[in-house]
Write a structure and sequence with these properties.
289 residues, alpha+beta, 9-stranded mixed β-sheet, 3-stranded antiparallel β-sheet, 17 strands
Length: 289
């Protein structure tokens, strides 16, 4: 696919599945430029995840850029940056063995209205490792058999943060013991369950995509977890096939903005003994249909 020009922006795909690098914009200066924001928005819809290099954003500019796409989420279970409740500091220190987001997931699908997308800004990157992998869930749906599509189109899945942020969840046990760079707040509220369609229709593109993830999808409606697990395990593996993915190498000043409605992601934990520090804002979305 050739390089495309969107107003001031140069938009160049980085893989055959999803992802594009955007050049020609300084987000600290242009976050209030309607033509730039329109181009960024269109690139996000076209490529599902977009990347920027060489950016320098203050927390205030980061928040202001995020708000151009909607209201911002305040995370229920991760302590925010002091003075900026919309920003969480995604970090790992040299002595930590766990990382944040170290498994395939879509952000906050345990909410009744999950995220539209997240904007992750890199301040410190390890010398090697610490990449993030993204997976195209339009493609995951399109590659299913006709029979599987017919079955899944009428199904509902149950999502919960119980096993991640609940009192007995691995995050509030394993993470707090092995991820000192962040403060994870466990709560009984995380045991709440919500229902989402297994196949959702994107509210802007009208395309269908799979909408289940290993982090927060626990079972199908009116089925037990044991009954649901074989099909869920098949779909989790199917959704994240290498052919559906792109991989991003972080540098200080890099930004990734992904469409959480049609993308899963995985923060690789392959940089023990090194530091990694990011700021993340998450744009609120709507109820999946």
């Amino acid at each position: 696919m050739p390089t495309q020009k969107l107003q001031e922006l140069s938009v160049k795909p980085i893989s055959g599945a999803l992802g594009a690098m955007i050049d020609g914009v300084d987000l600290a200066r242009h976050f209030d430029n309607n033509r730039v924001i329109s181009g960024v928005h269109q690139a996000l819809l076209d490529h599902q995840v977009i990347f920027f290099r060489g950016q320098q954003l203050t927390p205030e500019q980061h928040v202001a850029f995020g708000r151009r796409f909607g209201t911002l989420n305040v995370h229920d279970y991760v302590k925010a940056m002091d003075g900026h409740p919309e920003i969480i500091v995604v970090a790992k220190n040299e002595g930590d063995t766990k990382n944040f987001g170290g498994g395939w997931h879509s952000d906050v699908t345990y909410l009744e209205q999950p995220a539209l997308g997240s904007i992750l800004y890199c301040l410190e990157a390890p010398e090697f490792g610490g990449d993030t992998v993204f997976a195209n869930q339009y493609m995951a749906y399109d590659r299913l058999s006709l029979g599987m599509k017919r079955m899944l189109d009428g199904m509902t899945a149950i999502h919960t943060a119980r096993d991640v942020y609940g009192p007995r969840g691995h995050a509030t046990g394993g993470y707090t013991a092995n991820l000192k760079a962040m403060q994870i707040l466990g709560s009984t509220e995380a045991e709440k369950e919500v229902e989402h369609p297994v196949v959702r229709t994107h509210p802007e593109t009208g395309r269908k995509c799979l909408y289940i993830n290993e982090g927060f999808t626990k079972r199908f409606k009116d089925m037990t977890e044991a009954e649901s697990l074989p099909l869920l395990e098949y779909l989790w593996a199917h959704c994240t096939q290498p052919e559906f993915t792109c991989r991003f190498r972080w540098q200080p000043g890099s930004i990734a903005f992904w469409d959480n409605r049609a993308v899963q992601h995985y923060a690789l934990n392959d940089y023990h003994g090194q530091r990694r520090r990011m700021h993340r804002v998450t744009v609120n979305g709507d109820r999946p249909v």
